[in-house]
Amino acid sequence: MSTLNDYLREKRHAIAARESRIAAGEGAPMALTVHVRAEGRSGIRRIRIRDFQVISDSEADFAGYDLGPSSPELQLGVLGSCLTHTFLIQAATLGVPLDSLEVEITGIIDPRAGSPGFEEVPIHPHEIRYEVFIASSATPAEIRALREAVERNCPILNLLRQPQAIAGEVRLTKAGDA
Description:
Elements: H1 4-23, E1 34-38, E2 45-49, E3 52-56, H2 71-94, E4 100-108, E5 126-135, H3 140-153, H4 155-161
Antiparallel strand pairs: 1-2, 2-3, 4-5
């Protein structure tokens, strides 16, 4: 059976090939597109990304059916996925052995946020924290270097730490045209 360290060797080769392509001028910015549709009767949100789909829903107290994670839960999941992947990338790049890797993300969302008496409570997930569990023969110095590289290079971690302006618009269509 293949191990995580076997995968890291494959990842190291893929990263080297990718870096060679970029150095040769083959890299270019990529447009990312996500489409989300609220479905009738249930209100679930069907998230379509390339050829994949994810269902997002709410719990019963928000008129949901609990058919999938909520948007705040998905956001924490996206952070966890990106941190995990970035740990793998950086471990492969730095040659840090990993026997196992798990990331746990925690945060708080308060349904009272914005209500009378709770105007100062953030409406968004807050007190977000990640914890990484690594089994490795690496030295403490190698693990520190790994963490520093991850925190420098994780796209979603850095997006959340250094948010950017998000432009938006609403386009009105006729009922039934969607």
